[in-house]
Amino acid sequence: AEEGQGTTAFVSQPLRDNTTTTLAAALKDQRVTRIVLLTNYTAEKDTWPNQQQLPGTYLAINRNVTITGAQGTQTVLDMAFKLSAAQLCGSCRLTVHNLTVTNERRGNGSPWDFFVGPAGSSKAAIIMKDIIRLRYGCTSANASIVVAAALKRPDWLPGSSSGLQEFRVEDVDFQGHMYPQSLVSLDYAADIPRTVQEGRGAFGGYAVWCLNVTQLCMRTVATACLETKSVDACVNDLIDQALAGGQSAQQQQQLPLGLLAAAIAVPLLIALLLALAAALFISRRRKQQQQQQLDALKQQQQRLLQQQDSAKQQLVTPGRKSGASVGGQYGTDADPEAGLLPGPVGAEGSASVLCQGPLAGGTGWQQACLTSPIVGSLDNQEVQFGKLLGQGSFGRVYRAYWAGREVAVKVIDHDSEAHAAVANEVELMLSFNHPNVVRALHCVTWTHVQKDDAAAAAASAAATAAAAAAAASQRSAGTPLTGTLGSSQQQQQPQLQQQCSGLTDSQMQQLEEQLREGTSAAQLQQLCDQLLGQGSQQQLPPVAGNSGPLLSQQQQQQQGLGQGMCAQPGLVAIGGSTSSSSSRSSGSSCAQRDRGGDTSVCGMLPTHGDQQQQQQLGAKGAAAAAAAVGGTSAGADTQHKHPDVQPASGGNQHSLMQQQQQQQQQQGTPAALANRSRCETWLVLEYCDCGTLHQIASEWLPGQECDEQMLERLLLLRDAAQGLAALHAKNVVHGDLNSRNVLVASSASSPCGMTAKLADLGLSRVLQQHATHRTTQTVGTMSHMPPELLRYGRMSTAVDIYAYGITMYQLYTGEEAFRNLHYGQFYNAIVVQGARPPVPPDMPSDYALLMQRCWAAEPGERPGISNLLQCLDPMIKERRKRLSIDDTSLPPPEHSQPTMAAAAQVVKVIMGAICKLNKRQAR
Ligand SMILES: Nc1ncnc2c1ncn2[C@@H]1O[C@H](COP(=O)(O)OP(=O)(O)OP(=O)(O)O)[C@@H](O)[C@H]1O
To answer: Which residues contact 285 (CB under 8 A, 6 or more apart)?
Structure first.
């Protein structure tokens, strides 16, 4: 079986016609001694019976045979025969030459596990020459040398020149890939004993001779693995990993893409996070800065207020020293918390009283007007201020002591322009005497006059007075208040009076209608003459170029006569609304009392029918105003004298108006004038010791149907409804009902120990209309406004009922309805979409029903106030029953003397209330 004597077989994969054959067929064919691989070849694809199918059956090779690749190529033979094997005869040699050989073979040994030598023979040999062995896994070159050198070199194979196994370790560049530290077997020979096991049984029994065989390792076993496992185990692990890595190799190829994406995404993400953090940081800084600014402003405001208050103190304090009326230092000694108004400072002087004309001290404040007191007398009743109870949109409320009782004094900042409206609302409050409406006890207004600007302020005040008088007159004539006087009309008033005396009221009215700016004296006379000559019914031709609001005869009279500083006009509808003025047409008790006296110019203006009174009052006011303008020292009305503002000794109305005009021109714009006549009204109110209903409600557990709590809620709600009933009975609309405008006072006669009382009435709204210096939140709670008010500005008693429904919601849930909506969103929700706050599922059905009826979209669908009260009664009864409170033993809902039986019940409830108060205080 010599190589040279046989035939050559050409092997390809796939086969090329009949010119090529398979490797297995070529090996089987005993004539073939030379096999040439024309293509890369995977032996696995050859099939013949394998060991599992036919154990012990091998392909017999009984000759010497050479397998080679085509010259000059790197043909690859994959020796993965798997379970098939060939057996060399005892003296046969298989030579593999000039090939790249790969094998999935496990283990570290020879790649030729396809071949088996004859048992007991040592002459069979596999000779490799010029071979590149590509291995999936192997030990490092040096480790391989150690293993290889341990094997015996057969004596029958020619020895190496040195007589030793010859190896070299080098970095090999194969097909563009670097394989560092590769083992090159230059001349290595070893006997592979038959005992070598390769999983399928014994292999070996032949000699291996490697001449220039380079082993390229794709992966090298880690030395750490070799410390715990056998070399084969480690290599096998490595090969397993490599084979399993077919997929992972793909994944590895895709990995860079993933990595690429990550490489882009991660920095982006980091940049985004950094930007976010920066934005957060900046916004926080900004907030901090804003807060700091706000704090600074607040401090400044506080300082100003304190300055103002201390100025005021100087007005009130002297009286404390005398201690005649109240004694002690209320608010400082008595109440350690009181500190905002530190109480009397101990200035020497006679007792100062709230309502006793200009006060000493030269602080720039002068008492401008005051109403008659309802409680106590005017004289010797000082106000001593205690702690600040709260701050609203237009001023502060202090706890105070006045006329021998604890009161709350609401200090309202406004200017002279707003004074008329303020006074009107104050008068309304003074006129109410109902247990469920906060009682107004007294009022006084101060005007602030800069010494050097006294004249200017007086002029401004006079202008205001004229406007107020006009308004009063208009109202008394049954017309709505529409505007203030223009200067040219003011100029025309005396002319009218002088030139047109003798006209009837209606003629005068006609004349007024024709009067426009720029009407000359001659034109005016002509018109008067025309009217006088043509009779009262005749209409006058229009005077060209005239426009603007006009005055009635009464107005002229008022205008001409004027009023005092911050004089008060007639009545306007509460809340600036169109609600009927009839409710006030009778005038207040205060005004009636004023008529009795002869000194006060600041009583509420009389309504029509009180012309004489008006004139009387007006004359005094005019005198004061004239005095202010004249700035002379001659005394007139002592009630209004002031070191800076002295009444003039004379001067007719015409000259007053002229002076006024001149003064206005000298002093600049009306706004500047208004600034110089800042007013401050002190409204003395009944003190409500339990705070607001809002505060009380914040103590309740929101949404829980606890009978006791529900009863308290309903009782206070009924109080508020009774207050509303009192208002509505006089055709007065509150216009700003919400739980913050309902105050609560403890009351022994009330079933729950507390009584709710409506506060503010239309004051806030009126102030808002004149607001130039609003200090806190918006007046008029938007969330409580019904659709018709939002859409058309339509004010009626139904507006209060709607607000009542929203208040019910707030009292039950503890939440503000629509809190987070801005005006546009709110308008859209309420008016366009008809949205209402969500009714909580646990809300008792009777409560929910009433609440929803109250906030019905159509005003006509809402219950009237008496209807509402009727609904509340059974709801209260029901809860009382559940709490086993004897209904008959309780006092009737409004004030009455409790019977003995009722007293026990009352005590029980009061104890509950006290308990709650204590808890609240403890908190
Ligand atoms: N008669 C009173 N008795 C006791 N506390 C009162 C009295 N009047 C007002 N307060 C307290 O003073 C606070 C401020 O009241 P004020 O009427 O000035 O403002 P408001 O009604 O809260 O707000 P706004 O004027 O903007 O409607 C109230 O919240 C209340 O706590």
So the answer is: none
- State the residue for tokens 């397998």: 67
What spacing in Å lies between the alpha carbon of 410 and ligand 1's midpoint? 8
Query: What percent of the chain lies above the pLDDT cut of 70?
Result: 51
The ipTM estimated for the assembled molecules is: 0.96
Q: What is the pLDDT of residue 506?
A: 66
Contacts of 170 (CB under 8 A, 6+ apart): 181, 182, 184
Give 768's pLDDT tier (boundaries 50, 70, 90). Answer: low
**Tokens 């003459």 belong to residue:** 529
Q: Which residues contact 661 (CB under 8 A, 6 or more apart)?
A: 487, 490, 491
C-alpha span between 519 and 540 (Å, rounded): 14
Q: What secondary structure, in 3-state letters, does 74-106 show?
A: CCEEECCCCCCCEEECCCCEEEEEEEEEEECCC
Cα distance between residue 306 and residue 508, in whole Å: 51
- Residue 452 gets which letter from DSSP? G
Whose tokens are 């009743």? That residue is 381
Ligand 1 center to 684 CA (angstroms):
12
- The pLDDT of residue 503 is above 70: no
* 792-838 confidence digits (pLDDT tens): 888 889 999 999 999 999 999 988 888 878 888 888 899 999 999 99
Give yes or no for residue 763 CB within 6 A of ligand 1: no
Ligand 1: residue of 387, 692, 783 to mutate (most ligand atoms within 8 A of CB) is 692
Protein residue with its CA nearest to atom 19 in ligand 1: 392
Residue nearest atom 12 of ligand 1, based on CA coordinates: 390
User: Do 399 and 406 touch, CB atoms closer than 8 A?
Assistant: yes
- Counting from 1 in the atom list of ligand 1, the atom nearest the Cα of 736 is 27
Which structure tokens are listed for 606?
Answer: 């009389």
DSSP letter assigned to residue 65: E
Binding-site residue ranges for ATP: 410
CB 132 within 8 A of CB 100: yes
Quick check: 431 pLDDT over 50?
Answer: yes
The pLDDT, as a whole number, for residue 67 is: 92
Distance 391 CA to ligand 1 centre (A): 7
Q: Is the CB of 410 under 6 A from ligand 1?
A: yes
Nearest to 459 by CA among 256, 237, 667: 667
The distance from CA 509 to its chain's CA centroid, rounded to whole angstroms, is: 56
Cα torsion angle, 303, 307, 310, 315, sign: negative
Report pLDDT for 694.
93
Task: Evaluate whether 866 touches 725 at the Cβ level (below 8 Å).
Answer: yes
517 neighbors 492 (Cβ within 8 angstroms): no
A 10 A CB-CB count for 52 gives 10
State if residue 490 touches ligand 1 by the CB under 6 angstroms criterion. Answer: no
Q: Which helix (H) or strand (E) holds 415?
A: strand 405-415
Strands of 687-783, DSSP E: 742-746, 754-758
pLDDT in tens, 878-888: 888 888 775 55
Ligand 1 within 6 A of 799 CB? no
Atom 23 of ligand 1: nearest residue by CA position: 392
- Looking at the chain, the number of H-run helices and the number of E-run strands are 24, 23
Annotated binding site: 410
Give the residue carrying structure tokens 């229009």.
Answer: 542
Confidence (pTM): 0.43
Flag whether pLDDT at 554 surpasses 60. no
Ligand 1: which residue has its CA nearest to atom 22? 392
CA distance 542 to 515: 8
Q: pLDDT of 208-221, one tens digit each?
A: 898 999 988 888 88
Ligand 1 atom with minimal separation from the 767 CA: 25
Task: Determine the distance separating the centroid of ligand 1 and the alpha carbon of 278, expressed in angstroms.
Answer: 42
| Dist. CA 742 → ligand 1 center (Å) | 9
CB 688 near ligand 1, within 6 Å: yes
| Whether the CB of 398 sits within 6 Å of ligand 1 | no
